[in-house]
Amino acid sequence: TVENNSGAAAINATALLDTMDAGLRYKAGSLRIDGKPAPDPAFEADGSAMRIVLGTVPAFPRRAASGASL
After folding, report:
1. What is the rounded distance in angstroms from the CA atom of residue 40 to the CA atom of residue 24?
2. Count of Cβ atoms closer than 10 Å to residue 45 Cβ
3. Tens of each residue's pLDDT in the chain, 70 residues
4. What is the pTM of this model?
5. Most buried residue, 11, 27, 46, 70, by CB count within 10 Å?
C-alpha cells in the first residue's frame, strides 16, 4: 500500500519496488491495483524484485497493489 499524506499535491509517476522472499515466484496475471486487474510488473534484471507502476497518487488517498505468488 502506498499512501500520499502531502495534503496538497499529487505524486506523479509513482512506482513500488517489491522484493519477494526467496523461493516465491510471481503468478502472471494476478496483479491488482485498487482491486482492479493491472498489467504484470516489470522485474529487475537479476529477478530479485518487481516494479509495480502505480501512476499518479492524489493527495491523501492510498493505492493498494496485490498479487499472488506460487
Report:
1. 16
2. 5
3. 888 888 788 999 999 999 988 888 889 999 999 899 999 999 988 888 999 999 998 888 777 788 777 6
4. 0.74
5. 11
